[in-house]
Amino acid sequence: MVELRTPGGDRALISPEGAQLLSWQAGGREQLYWSALSPATPGRAVRGGVPVCFPQFSDRGPLQKHGFVRVNRWDVVETTGDMVRLAFDPRLAPAAWPHPFALGLTVRLGEGWIEVGLEATNTGTEDLRFTAALHTYLAVPDVRQARVEGLQGCDYEDALDGLRVKREQAPAITFDGELDRVYRNVPASLALQDGATRRITQAGFVDTVVWNPGPAKAAALGDMPPGDWLRMVCIEAAVAAAPVRLAPGRSWSGSQRIALNPA
């Protein structure tokens, strides 16, 4: 594990396995969800923290769900007290992905905020197409009391209704069971309200995924206690509705920043 700290006592843990941010402690509590039934194990993504989905989001392509970088070990390139930079070894890519690329991830920690940045470069001679996401699991006391603000008026793909495209009419998204949506062309800033406020901003990522498994799916997952659907919500910075297309030699970058605000 790589540990980051701030002078004020905020703390983050990053695993080179999958370059996964596993823990962020700020404001007197843990801000990320991590399932007690999902230990950090080589070759397997943890159910929690911030798994990195690349070069495929979910099952939108021929690769394993959410791609292969989250189940391989990354190299730690640089680390300071409040920053770590990791790089994926493209030689670990499967034969089903024969496209040359470079991929890096940077985590920065500040007082009351954390930022995760992903950068991809096309090192080949043909166009590179990919989808990606930072699959952020946020901890909440009770998801039934939580709401996500800032997506009113956005179109979304509803995975619970055959990916049918709908428009968000509500001023805030609330949770009383399973929810799985890809919001398209979202604003740069959202808010998660759950008794306190977390401001979530993203750049480069044009979509946001909002997901909670609900009680039935949580019970079927196997790596999550059934009741833990109440303790988490995923708000994922993503490029999922349409793939990024990179010309040879070009780079793309995206980031997600989460900051605490007073209640």
Helix-strand blueprint:
Elements: E1 2-5, E2 11-15, E3 20-26, E4 29-30, E5 52-53, E6 75-79, E7 83-88, E8 101-110, E9 113-122, E10 128-134, E11 137-139, E12 147-149, E13 155-158, E14 164-167, E15 172-174, E16 179-183, E17 189-193, E18 197-203, E19 207-212, H1 214-221, E20 232-246, E21 251-261
Antiparallel strand pairs: 1-2, 2-3, 3-4, 5-10, 6-7, 7-8, 8-9, 9-21, 10-20, 11-20, 12-15, 12-17, 13-14, 13-16, 16-19, 17-18, 18-21, 19-20
Detailed description of the structure:
By secondary structure, the chain is mainly β. It has a single domain, classed as Beta-galactosidase, Chain A, domain 5. The protein is 3% helix and 47% strand. The chain is built from one helix and 21 strands. The strands form three sheets. Strands 6-7-8-9-21-18-17-12-15 form a nine-stranded antiparallel β-sheet, with no helix packed on it. Strands 5, 10, 11, 13, 14, 16, 19 and 20 form an eight-stranded antiparallel β-sheet that branches.
Number of strands: 21
Please tell me the CATH architecture by its name. Distorted Sandwich
Radius of gyration, rounded?
17 Å
Proportion of residues in β-strands = over 45%
User: What is the strand arrangement across the widest sheet?
Assistant: 6-7-8-9-21-18-17-12-15
When the domains are counted, the total is 1
State the major sheet: 9 strands, antiparallel
Enter the CATH topology name: Beta-galactosidase, Chain A, domain 5
Assembly type of the chains comes to single chain
Overall structural class, as computed from helix and strand content, comes to mainly beta
In CATH's first tier, which class applies? Mainly Beta
